[in-house]
């Protein structure tokens, strides 16, 4: 028990080679530079703005869609129903032999 060696595995060297250390130093300097931090901030700001824009666009689309369903669709249905009634009246008048009266122009 006098010597406590490691059991199994591979022992790694204590110090890295000089060229590997220089590369790590260069990478760390680049990643901590002001240009990189400004780029990260710009990307973060762009993501925030696009998220807000997408959310507000979705809300506007929801409002437009529901407004169309509530106001415009019933109007279209009623106009179609009115046109069908006019056509039916003209058809009945022609069958009964009465002179067909042209529908009055709507204002």
UniProtKB/TrEMBL annotation:
Per the record, membrane topology reads: Single-pass membrane protein
Q: What UniProt keywords are attached to this protein's entry?
A: Membrane, Mitochondrion, Mitochondrion outer membrane, Protein transport, Receptor, Translocation, Transmembrane, Transmembrane helix, Transport
- Give one Pfam hit by family name: Tom22
Grouped into one coarse class, the protein's main location is mitochondrion
| Membrane-crossing segments per the record | 60-77
What CDD domains would the database entry show? TOM22
Record flagged with keyword Hydrolase: no
> Which GO terms of the cellular component aspect does the record hold?
mitochondrial outer membrane
InterPro entries the UniProt entry points to = Tom22 (IPR005683), Tom22_pln (IPR017411)
In residue numbers, the region (Disordered) covers: 1-26
Where is the protein localized? Mitochondrion outer membrane
Its GO biological process terms?
Answer: intracellular protein transport
What family classification does the UniProt entry report for this protein? Belongs to the Tom22 family.
Question: Which protein is depicted?
Answer: Mitochondrial import receptor subunit TOM9-2
Species annotation:
Quillaja saponaria (Soap bark tree)
Q: Upper taxonomic classification of the species?
A: Eukaryota, Viridiplantae, Streptophyta, Embryophyta, Tracheophyta
């Amino acid at each position: 028990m006098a010597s406590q060696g490691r059991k199994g595995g591979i022992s790694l060297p204590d110090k890295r080679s000089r060229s590997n250390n220089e590369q790590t130093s260069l990478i760390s300097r680049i990643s901590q530079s002001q240009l990189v931090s400004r780029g990260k901030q710009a990307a973060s700001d762009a993501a925030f703005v696009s998220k807000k824009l997408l959310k507000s666009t979705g809300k506007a689309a929801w409002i437009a869609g529901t407004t169309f369903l509530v106001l415009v669709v019933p109007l279209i249905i009623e106009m179609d129903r009115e046109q069908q009634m006019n056509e039916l009246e003209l058809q009945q008048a022609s069958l009964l032999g009465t002179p067909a009266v042209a529908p009055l122009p709507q204002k």
